[in-house]
Amino acid sequence: MSAKLIVQGLTHHYPDEYTGETVHALDAIDLKVEEGELVTVVGPSGCGKSTLLNILAGLLPYEAGAVSVDGVPIRGPGSDRGVVFQEHAILPWRTVTRNIGHGLEIKNVPKHVREPKVQAFVDLVGLTGFEGKYPHELSGGMKQRCAVARTLCADPAIMLMDEPFAAVDAQTRITLQEELNRIAIATKKTIMFITHSVDEAAFLGDRCFVFSARPGKIKTIVDIDIPRERRNWNDMNADSVFLAARARILKLVREEVADVVEE
Ligand SMILES: Nc1ncnc2c1ncn2[C@@H]1O[C@H](COP(=O)(O)OP(=O)(O)OP(=O)(O)O)[C@@H](O)[C@H]1O
Ligand SMILES: [Mg+2]
Known about the structure:
There is one protein chain. By secondary structure, the chain is of the alpha/beta class. Helix content is 38%, strand content 23%. It has two domains: 1-80 and 159-166 and 180-263, P-loop containing nucleotide triphosphate hydrolases (Rossmann fold, 3-Layer(aba) Sandwich), CATH 3.40.50; 86-155, no CATH class. The strands form two sheets. It has a six-stranded mixed β-sheet, with helices on both faces. The longest helix is centred in the C-terminal third of the chain and has 23 residues, at 240-262. The mean pLDDT is 91. The site of adenosine-5'-triphosphate (ATP) has 13 residues, from strand 2 and helix 1.
């Protein structure tokens, strides 16, 4: 069986308006993500992580290479790919329920089918009791839960997440990580998760793609062979496989940052 997401030889340059030169953001990226896998992506700031995600989301045209989901080439945005960004992608004028069910409303899914499905996602992300609230009445963590549920409810083939938990406090962040792990178990979604946090990358990833400094290339892939059911922060802090993976990822990322500083 072929992989869910396949990226081959993906290269991207941005024009620089001021100098007339180009910024080489991605250099011949090759990667595969298997069905049901959660991969994390880490690398120094500016190495091209968001560029990769925006290309996969279909928001940015790419100049060279091939990208496909379920064998279908990516040519623009599509409902097969759900995206969660750092800023909450929820609509301020819609309640929690109507944000989460928005995709189903657009598809004209009848109310009696939509409502139980939306409620299941409200419950899954722990927003039970807040169904009628508007985004301004929610905490940062709750807004992100709402954004995750909104994306999941549209049932994309793959979820693309770009630093989704970066703006919340440390305590909420570890709770959201544990919740995403639980969601990954419950839904078996294929997920690509970009983060700056080495802890987060090691905690969530089945594999972690460590990027080199710009132009972004995959430097090393670190396997994190820990069953999802065992992943919770109380246990991981004393888990030798987790600690070894985290130390390895940290070392790989720091080498890249040191190179950037020396340049
Ligand atoms: N729209 C754009 N126009 C021109 N250059 C851009 C644009 N977006 C990104 N870049 C450049 O491309 C490079 C990669 O940027 P990108 O946002 O993909 O990095 P990143 O790995 O996501 O960084 P961070 O970890 O800080 O979010 C950077 O040098 C950036 O300045
Ligand atoms: Mg980024």
